[in-house]
Design goal:
The complex is a heterodimer. Chain A has three domains: 147 residues, Beta-Lactamase (2-Layer Sandwich); 125 residues, Mu homology domain, subdomain B (Immunoglobulin-like), CATH 2.60.40; 107 residues, Immunoglobulin-like. Helices cover 17% and strands 42% of the residues of chain A. Chain A contains seven helices and 23 strands. Chain A has a nine-stranded mixed beta sheet with strand order 11-13-9-8-23-21-16-19-18, with no helix packed on it. In chain A, strands 2-1-5-4-3 form a five-stranded antiparallel beta sheet. A four-stranded antiparallel beta sheet of chain A has the order 14-15-20-17, with no helix packed on it. In chain A, a hairpin with a 4-residue loop joins β18 and β19. The two termini of chain A are 46 Å apart. The relative contact order of chain A is 0.12. Chain B has 45 helices and 16 strands. In chain B, the strands form three sheets. In chain B, strands 1, 11, 12, 13, 14, 15 and 16 form a seven-stranded antiparallel beta sheet that branches. Chain B has a five-stranded antiparallel beta sheet with strand order 2-3-4-8-6, with helices on one face. In chain B, α8 runs antiparallel to α9. Classes of the chains: A alpha+beta, B alpha+beta. Chains A and B meet through β2, β4, α2, α4 and β7 of A and α3, α5, α7, α9 and α11 of B.
């Protein structure tokens, strides 16, 4: 299946290669570089490329290309999903996925890749299993290892691999037993010029952090499971139980994991927390433009909107921005033509406003399209769909764990057309 | 030399640190020292600073490898480890470290696991190059293969099989055979992987390897399943016979196999199923819904249709596969979801495919690359099945931050989804895209508009006008694209030429982009005969400005002159000569050349000779129109989700998906003597329990019973309740599906469009109601019911409960289908000149496609209605009755045949005739209304205008009228839908049907059965509710049954044809239960039929509405008595 993997940085250097079958020369990447050249933006490189003898499937993440080479028919999503899983694992192990981090830990990364695939077929991709085989580096451990000559490689067979619950490692022990669940909802929306909602929906995810001793069997139930329309689960969730009782029943993996993602049924009207009044205009003459953005609260359910930012991808011809913000700061990046207005907390009494003039390249034609505004925001302690966890129970173990649920609403792909 | 010394120094520091156990701070100091050393000598390495940071620097330095060799040969483990880490670093960088082979291979037997692993990594990488030396290590692995620790055995096999040295093939073969019989499933899994490796090394071993695969396929471990199927796919994908005996096991294990294995197994099973089962799609109807249309005209034909449906009974194994893959749609792994989606697409009955839609749309939230692949697949699917994705149209709206290929794919899908009903929304959306800064995307949008215009004739004019306006755009790509599209549209619509071309001529003065000017001139020349007055005038103007034009425009001026000269030489002879003279002395040689050529061609002279005669044919040859069609049109020749599909070329190793066999191969090949319960199972209380019931369901004897049952189901009531209900429900599902399609094609579908389009105008007034309605999920809870039922009954009567499961599942499926499928069908019905057309036309003034970038923003009115229409759409999906207990759900009907009634005869209606029927759909406008569809036909010889509904009687009658039909051409018919609140009485609704000139009083009298909505409930709930409705709320009578009506299937059919009720699954096969509720007041209506001997039966109806009960009883009695 997956023949080889090349990690390529932003400027096009191959800084790591791994072959699971016979070695394939680096020159195969030239086809990819060609496509990359053509695409201008790295996001525009087609994920699947054909070369005379191989097929190249790549993903672009964190400014890195993960380029895999395959020789025969394979579902492309299989490879893409795996490559993302590699990136996730690196992220999980080292806290970030970047060229520097991978280079610093090249041996560990190489060992991980070795374990993840056998002959190009995924072998162990569960982070719990991998962590048993190859321990993630911690400062403490590296000190201990240097003192004792110990290693990062586990010396036992990961038990999870063999049991029917491959996602959980055996013999977990904690002094403080705790289980935290974050219900995070993102609002995807497109608003049009006049502020009318063209499209709005809510996507949610439940991130869990479970540190429980032994083999706990948890059930999580909701006050209003009917809100959930379409969901995907971590493999630990018993699907039948959900189908019949609308209860999440599972033996959790150890540590952080995504329990489920869901989509709130589209019949429900999405309450947008903010409204945006904007006026961006480019004058026909005089190569300048005007910008005026105001943001106000709409349906915030009595909570404060935080972390509010507005990002505007300006047309190429906009040279500079001379603006004043009543709240927060703005920056205009001349190279990328991105205007970012960092507002922070939204004060309902005094609505934040950003206005001023834009200067355009002299002689260039007036931009045809006004740039869209991308909004990010956060509302703590609120799930905008109204979803509520009703209770969490634990079976199978005697102790009493500490439990907690947190709600958070964020803007997902929240775009205002202008 | 210097560098070497520093290296040494660093090493010393490192060693001293090791021996003295220096503190962490000291270590930092040591590193700092090394770094200082590095700075002074850039070629050296920071050896002590740790392998990770170090390897990059010394890799070019050959001597460093010598150094590594020394480290490897030292006695200190830590040094060796350090060296190996650096070597692996080299490998990772792609640097050559092959000369270290002898030094490394010595460490293969080392006890340190980490070191050993690194050595393995090295061996696998370089063994191929140093085969002789590699052989030294083989004995180590052979020993390790006997190790008591399964982990060591597995890793030894892994490495041994990864060493690509042909000489050890026999050793590998032996090792694989042994490991395949290993106790540990993990080792067996590894051996499955090794099979593929050996096969790629030496394909001659195929036969022996197939034996091993055969053995491993029998393995019951979830751990092994995925890997062995992978090996099967790689080595012998054509040996489908190996799968037979393992088919059911694989299906049952599937949920518990790891994600990657699931993908492989599902795609293999897709291929398998296509060879082993017969098509669940009707003959030749796969993607051709038009075929079905033929059936729907009369009742007699409908019966024939059902007969045909009866002949198809889904193989239980086929059903098993579909059932067991369905939960995987909820997987977090996008590849799994995609593979289930393609399985449903290629294997499921058409109405079941829709269940994958939501999950596919969910994947669009994932990474960019995932979106790319999923959108490609959706694009292919949406060409054939618009209905699947139409409700999710908004998920394909483009954001300015999407990358270009995502945008283009979304555009493709939106274009595919466009139909009469949603075209205005889509065009409005396109309007935004056209102005995009991403010019490639803007150009693609114009193409898309062009495609919409050709596909949907109603909007051709609007699109054309919009595109003409785009000609004044500043961007050349946009202009060029618009011209191409306009050209195409003009070629398809010859009558409209002059208007557009005139318009373009008018715009001409304002257009400055040379490309656009040139394009207009070309069009002018091409169609000069259609604008005989304007073309010469344009030429006159151009003659004046010739010298100031761009080269590209000049060329077209010359062309235009030449063409006009040929067609209209009287008026343009002098002008042409003038222009040719100007061109002759132009600075550009291209233009001089062209001028010279044209002159020779068109002006007859003694030199020009024969060519001159053909000038007309050369210059005015008809030019083929560029084809505007989807790039995904024939992508479906590849299996969805494959690499080949994504690339649109056959990838190497692509396995063709075979066509369905005409006759199903022997089913018994899949029978297995003993099926043991899966032992892999951990002691998980909840999960294990459910598992058990699953297994019982597929135990062997069960299987046979089922097959028997399905054979006998048509003729008689089988004694085994479980099997008969299973097969019965399945065939019933088929028939209901058929009839559903029947009705949906004849009327409902067109009314679907009707409803949507009228909703747009209605939306203003309906707005409040719509938003207040609390929508509710239907299909999921219904499925949940049946599942809980299964839980309750599982251990006691597993078979019956699971059959209940299957039947109710099929019901919900078909219901889903009816919601989303009908719009797709409607698109195909081109002959229904329904109202949307009229409406779109009338809206033209508002300008749907306001593409003029000089004009201000479009009016705000338009987007609003778009939003509302979508909320209406979503209302179609969920309809709720707030006073219902959660266990009882309103469902869409399981269909009985639809009877058509006459509303107005064409004699009395002066040419206007009207027929109506009850589509048995929940009414869109108000839940208390009954939906009625009226087919209006104009059988007169003149067109009828302003057809609408006039006064009603009684005046209080709550009636939802259809929108006024502006004009109905002779011989045309239109289907409109109405909603009538009958207030649970069979009293006729009288109203007037008016045309511009006449008024006709008509009345609709509903049969009592049409005043119900079907609901599903469990048997327990039914009994409970029945218990509450005794005494005067109960009406019962013993009735005589026609002998033909004694099978459960026939009973359901008869009852459903009379009343719009839902079937309640029953465990007693002599009692049939149906449930519904009245539309207006929502009172429960429970019908139960208890079979007695000698074709008599006790019919009981429990409801508060006793009048309705007696009427229903009468109707049912009549229906059941007749054959």
């Amino acid at each position: 299946m997956i023949h080889s993997l090349f990690l390529i940085n932003h400027s096009g250097d191959i800084f790591l290669e791994k072959h699971w079958k016979s070695v394939i020369g680096r020159s195969v990447c030239d086809y990819f570089f060609e496509a990359k050249e053509k695409a201008v933006q790295p996001e525009n490189v087609p994920p699947v490329l054909q070369t005379p003898h191989h097929y190249l499937i790549s993903v672009y993440r964190d400014k890195l290309f993960f380029l895999s080479v395959v020789q025969t028919e394979v579902p492309p999503l299989f490879v893409i999903e795996f490559l993302h899983r590699v990136a996730d694992t690196v992220q999980d192990y080292f806290g970030e996925c970047s060229e520097g981090v991978i280079k610093d830990n090249v041996v560990t990364v190489y060992e991980l890749l070795e374990e993840m695939l056998d002959n190009g077929f995924p072998l162990a991709t569960e982070s719990n299993v991998l962590k048993e085989m190859i321990r993630p580096p911690t400062i403490l451990r590296s000190v201990v290892n240097t003192l004792t000559g110990g290693s990062n490689v586990g010396d036992t067979l990961p038990t999870g691999q063999l049991s029917s619950i491959p996602w959980r490692r055996a013999g977990v022990k904690y002094t403080n037993n705790e289980a935290y669940f974050d219900v995070i909802e993102e609002i995807d929306a497109i608003l049009d010029k006049s502020g009318t909602t063209v499209f709005a929906e809510i996507q949610g995810v439940i991130e869990a952090c479970v540190r429980l001793t032994g083999m706990p069997d948890l059930t999580l139930s909701f006050m209003n499971p009917r809100l959930l329309d379409d969901m995907s689960f971590h493999p630990c969730v018993r699907f039948k139980r959900w189908e019949s009782e609308r209860i999440l029943s599972f033996i959790p993996p150890d540590g952080n994991f995504t329990l489920m993602t869901y989509h709130v049924s589209s019949q429900n009207v999405v309450a947008l927390p903010v409204y945006v009044k904007q006026n961006i205009s480019f004058l026909e003459t005089g190569s300048c433009g005007r910008l005026d953005i105001t943001i106000g609260p709409k349906q915030t359910m009595g909570k404060t909107v935080e972390g509010l930012t507005v990002t505007v991808h300006m047309p190429k011809t906009v040279l500079s921005a001379n603006l004043t913000a009543t709240q927060g700061n703005y920056t205009y990046n001349l190279a990328t033509k991105v205007l970012v207005w960092d507002i922070g907390k939204l004060n309902p009494q005094k609505l934040p406003n950003l206005r001023g003039s834009l200067s355009l390249q002299a002689g260039a034609p007036r931009p045809e399209e006004n740039p869209a505004l991308d909004i990010t925001l956060k509302i703590q302690q609120l799930a905008i769909s109204g979803l509520k966890v009703s209770r969490l129970d634990m079976y199978g173990e005697k102790y009493k764990p500490f439990k907690g649920v947190k709600y958070l609403t964020k803007a997902g792909k929240f775009q205002v057309r202008t | 030399m210097n560098s070497l010394q520093v290296e040494r120094g660093a090493e010393d520091v490192y060693l001293s640190r090791m021996s003295t156990g220096a503190s962490y701070n000291d270590q930092g100091g040591a590193e700092a020292a090394v770094e200082a050393g590095q700075e002074s000598t850039p070629t050296s390495s920071g050896a002590g600073a740790g392998a990770g940071a170090a390897f990059g620097l010394f890799s070019t330095d050959f001597k460093k490898n010598e150094d590594l060799k020394e480290m490897l040969e030292s006695n200190k483990e830590s040094l060796k480890l350090e060296a190996m880490k650096r070597v692996v670093g080299l490998i990772a960088k792609g640097k050559n470290a092959s000369e270290l082979f002898p030094a490394v291979v010595k460490n293969v037997a080392n006890k340190n696991i980490e070191l050993k692993k690194l050595v393995y990594v090295y061996l696998v990488r370089y063994a191929e190059e140093q085969q002789d030396l590699a052989l030294l290590s083989i004995s180590t692995f052979q020993r390790a293969l006997k190790d008591p620790n399964q982990f060591i055995r597995a890793s030894a096999l892994r490495v041994l099989s990864s060493i690509r040295v042909p000489i050890i093939v026999p050793i590998m073969m032996l090792a694989i055979k042994e490991s395949a019989a290993d106790m540990s499933p993990y080792v067996r899994k590894t051996s499955a992987h090794a099979i593929q490796k050996l096969y790629s090394l030496d394909p001659d071993q195929k036969e022996q390897l197939i034996e091993v695969i055969e053995k491993l396929l029998k393995d019951k471990s979830t751990l092994v399943a995925g890997s062995v199927v992978m090996a099967f796919e790689e080595v012998c994908p054509d040996r489908i016979d190996l799968i037979h005996k393992n088919y059911r096991k694989l299906c049952n294990l599937l949920v518990d196999v790891e994600e990657w294995g699931q993908v492989v197994i599902i795609s293999m099973l897709t291929r398998y199923a296509r060879t082993q089962f017969i098509s669940p799609w009707k003959e030749g109807a796969m993607f051709d819904e038009n075929n079905e249309k033929a059936f729907y005209d009369s009742d007699s034909e409908e019966k024939k249709d059902q007969m045909e449906a009866k002949t198809y009974i889904m193989d239980p194994d086929h059903r098993l596969l579909l059932r067991n893959t369905k939960p995987l749609l909820q997987s977090r792994n996008t590849a799994v979801v995609m593979s289930v989606a393609q399985l449903y697409w290629h294997l499921a009955p058409k109405h079941e495919v829709t269940i994958v839609t939501k999950s596919l749309v969910r994947l669009l939230r994932s990474h960019r690359e995932v979106q790319y692949i999923v959108l490609q697949n959706i694009a292919t699917m949406s060409i054939q099945r618009k209905g699947m994705f139409e409700p999710f149209m908004k998920s394909f709206y483009v954001r300015s931050t999407d990358s270009t290929h995502i945008k283009t794919l979304k555009l493709e899908i939106l274009t595919n989804l466009a139909n009469e009903a949603n075209i205005s929304t889509i065009l409005r959306e396109f309007q935004t895209y056209v102005k995009s800064q991403d010019k490639a995307f803007a150009a693609a949008t114009i193409q898309a508009i062009g495609r919409c215009a050709t596909n949907i004739s109603e909007v051709t004019d609007t699109c054309l006008n919009g595109l003409v306006l785009l000609l004044s755009n500043r961007d050349e790509t946009v202009v060029a694209e618009s011209v191409v599209v306009i050209k195409k549209l003009l070629q398809t619509q010859p009558t409209q030429h002059s208007e557009i071309i005139k318009h373009m001529a008018k715009l001409f003065d304002n257009i400055t982009v040379p490309m656009a000017r040139a394009s207009i001139l070309w069009l002018m020349g091409e169609y000069c005969e259609r604008v005989p007055k304007i073309a010469p005038d344009v030429l006159r103007k151009m003659a004046k400005t010739f010298t100031a034009e761009e080269d590209i425009v000049k060329l077209q001026i010359v062309n235009l002159a030449a063409k006009l000269y040929l067609t209209n030489s009287k008026q343009t002879k002098l002008l042409t000569q003038y222009i040719l003279n100007l061109g002759k002395y132009d600075q550009n040689y291209d233009i001089r050349d062209r001028t010279r050529f044209i002159r020779q061609l068109i002006v007859p002279s003694e030199k020009s000779g024969a060519l001159n005669k053909y000038a007309r044919r050369i210059l005015l040859a008809p030019k083929p129109a560029p084809v505007l069609e989807s790039a995904f049109k024939d992508r479906d020749r590849y299996q969805l989700g494959t690499l080949s599909h994504s690339l649109n070329t056959k990838a190497s190793g692509y396995q063709e998906l075979s066509d369905w066999p005409a006759v199903a191969p022997d089913q018994s090949v899949r029978n297995v003597e003993v099926i043991e319960p899966v032992k892999e199972w951990a002691p998980l209380v909840g999960k294990a329990k459910q598992r058990k019931s699953d297994e019982k369901f597929y135990s062997d004897e069960e299987e046979e019973k089922e097959e028997e049952g399905s054979d006998s189901s048509g003729s008689e009531d089988s004694s085994s309740s479980s099997s008969s209900s299973e097969s019965g429900s399945e065939s019933e599902e088929e028939s209901s599906e058929e009839s559903e399609k029947t009705s949906s094609d004849s009327g409902k579908s067109s009314s679907g469009s009707e409803q949507e389009s009228s909703s747009e105008s209605e939306s203003q007034q309906k707005k409040k109601k719509k938003t207040k309605k609390a929508p509710q999920k239907k299909s999921k809870p219904a499925a949940a019911d049946s599942d809980s039922d299964e839980n309750g009954n599982g251990p006691v009567a597993p078979a019956s409960s699971s059959s209940a499961d299957s039947s109710s599942a099929s019901e919900t499926d078909s219901e889903d289908d009816s919601d989303s499928d009908s719009p797709a069908v409607q698109k195909k019905k081109s002959d229904v000149k329904s109202k949307p057309k009229v409406e779109v036309k009338s809206k033209k003034e508002v300008s749907l496609l306001d593409l003029d970038d000089f004009s201000p923003a479009p009016t705000t009115k338009a987007p609003k209605s778009a939003v509302l229409s979508s909320s209406l759409l979503s209302d179609l999906e969920g309809l709720s009755l707030s006073n219902v207990s959660p266990a009882i759900q309103v469902t869409t009907p399981s269909f009985g045949p639809v009877k058509t009634y006459e509303l107005l005869h064409h004699m009395t209606g002066k040419g206007l005739s009207a027929k109506y029927h009850f589509p048995r759909q929940p009414c869109l406008y108000q839940p208390s209304m009954v939906a009625v569809q009226v087919v209006l036909t104009n059988s007169s010889d003149h067109s009828l205008e302003e057809i609408h509904i006039g006064d009603r009687n009684p005046a209080s009658l709550n009636l939802h009228c259809f929108n006024t039909i502006e004009r109905l051409e002779p011989e045309a018919s239109v289907t409109v839908s109405m909603g009538i609140d009958f207030s649970d009485s069979t009293q006729a609704a009288n109203f007037q049907l008016c045309t511009k000139d006449d008024q006709f009083s008509v009345s609709i009298q509903p049969a009592v059965g049409e005043l119900f909505m079907p609901i599903t409930m469990t048997e327990q709930d039914f009994s409970k509710e029945q218990g509450k409705l005794l005494g005067m709320n109960e009406t019962s009578e013993t009735i005589a049954m026609a002998t033909a009506n004694t099978s459960s299937q026939a009973i359901s059919k008869q009852v459903l044809s009379v009343a719009n009720v839902g079937v309640v699954s029953s465990t007693q096969n002599n009692i049939h239960r149906f449930a519904g509720r009245t539309v207006s007041s929502g009172a429960l209506v429970l019908v139960s039929l208890e079979m007695k001997e000698s074709s008599s039966a006790l019919l009981t109806i429990n409801t508060e509405k006793s009048v309705m009960a007696s009427m229903l009883l009468r109707d049912l009695k009549q229906a059941l008595a007749q054959a």
